[in-house]
Amino acid sequence: MANRFVGRIRVLTLLCALAACVIVGRLYVLQIMNGSMYEERAQAQLTPQTSPLLDRNEIYFTDKDGNPWTAALMDQVGTTSEYKRVYPGGSLAAQELGFVAYNNDNTQKGRYGLERYYDQTLARTDDDLYTNFFVELFGKAQSVLSGEPQTGSVITSIEPAVQGELERTLAGYDDTWHPQLSGGVIMDPQTGEIYAMAVAPTFDLNSFNTQTDPLIYANPLVENVFEMGSILKPLTMAAGIDSGAITPTTTYNDTGCITVDTKKICNYDGVARGVIPMQQILSQSLNVGASFIATQMGPSVMRDYFLNHYDLGTETGIDLPGEVHGLVDNIANDDRQVEFDTASFGQGIAISPIETVRALAVLANGGKLVTPHLATAIRYDTGVERTLTWGDGEQVLKPQTVTDVTRMLTTVVDTALANGDIKLEHYSVAAKTGTAQIANPAGGGYYSDRFLHSFFGYFPSYNARFIVFLFAVDPKGAPYASQTWAQPFFSLTKFLLNYYNVAPDR
């Protein structure tokens, strides 16, 4: 009996000691680490406020070594007692971060980007600042136990050096080719973690209110759809192989042009190649060859792969606001073969860039459809950090199919792209270009002199660490994406391989 009593006393003593440690730790945070902030907040209460005080948690980038870099924080303004939202990176990842601005109800809310998507997590109320310490301590503990929403800081996978390199690449591209719009995504195809996402033109988050065109705040990588062109041919090839409609060694007779349901479909140059294997469809980017694969599959099989395996036409679930789904009604509700033949080379269907990245990543990760995302963890005000889970991804292609198509895309780089002169000696790279006609919304049909240029690749080919996607709307001075994007893509590729010290695979 005595031993049991002594045991209970020890347990009780331990619990009291733990509680004391928690209280002391919290007091240290409040009075020492954040004491000056709360003092200034209290002083601010002596001055009549025209609007509610703003208080908000941080957003962090994460460098390659796992160290956090502050991307958004609260800081004091000059000699006043008021705090405002500050973005140390200026324009770095502007469309992805978003900003804080007044709402119609005279409160400041997250607008655009992560600031909007995670607004309820980032925002603190004035009541939280001045509540009794013990009420706060035990109130937060109760909210954790009850599963109530909590506030905290958002930690992202955006790597600041990689983000900066992507933005410099887009700026250089724009200076050379003068597109209406350009953008890019660098992602881990295995997990869906986004290392960099950028749009040009961009703006400085610390002076967002000086912009005259509000469209610059939006993120077209998520919020707009485009006809992507030949960058989708590898997905057509993969669907054909995976379904058994073709094999990598299948041949066909390329006549240069064909007529399908009264519509004429031609290769980019109209030239016939004769009897050639599947590899040449990707190496020479042949529309007639992609149409051949679509016809071999038939509407029902191709529809299943494009809409149910690749989820084209479905939102990805990325943690950014305003995501739109692709426009694929023509292959969802129409059985005419011409609709599928044109979709096979990326025309007639319009999808968002992030949908495109998600689908193409299937080829880089062994056949899984992963969820692209920016946030990796939430660091709650209670001190608890929760890692966010985004799932392992559904297996949508056979591993052998992915290996076959990866081998073909690596051959494209080694032998066809710039005649093989641009390949890397010690690293395998799988890649494909895309040049799409741009639809004319006024007169119907397509412009004859305006194109969308896209480029994607992943590397090392058979154990991919990165997938890179680049696109530009209406670049000037060159008709094909291989002319405008090959050098910027390989510049980024070399940077990533060196920066992450990736071991050679050749």
Helix-strand layout with pairing:
Blueprint (H helix, E strand, L loop, with lengths): L1 H32 L1 H10 L14 E4 L5 E9 L6 E4 L7 H4 L1 E4 L5 E4 L1 H5 L1 H4 L3 H5 L2 H14 L5 E5 L3 H18 L3 E7 L6 E7 L19 H4 L9 H11 L7 E4 L2 E4 L2 E4 L7 E4 L1 H5 L3 H11 L1 H11 L19 H4 L4 H8 L8 H9 L6 E2 L5 E6 L4 E3 L6 E2 L3 H18 L13 E10 L6 E14 L6 E8 L7 H19 L7
Parallel strand pairs: 1-6
Antiparallel strand pairs: 1-2, 2-3, 4-5, 6-14, 7-8, 7-19, 9-12, 10-11, 13-16, 14-15, 17-18, 18-19
Description:
- With 506 residues, the protein is of the alpha+beta class.
- The chain has a domain at 160-499: Beta-lactamase, CATH 3.40.710.
- 38% of the residues lie in helices and 21% in strands.
- The strands form six sheets. A six-stranded mixed beta sheet has the order 3-2-1-6-14-15, with no helix packed on it. A five-stranded antiparallel beta sheet has the order 8-7-19-18-17, with helices on both faces. Strands 4-5 form a two-stranded antiparallel sheet.
- α8 packs antiparallel against α18 and α10 (233-243) crosses α17.
- The longest helix has 32 residues, at 2-33.
- It starts with a helix and ends in a 7-residue tail after the last helix.
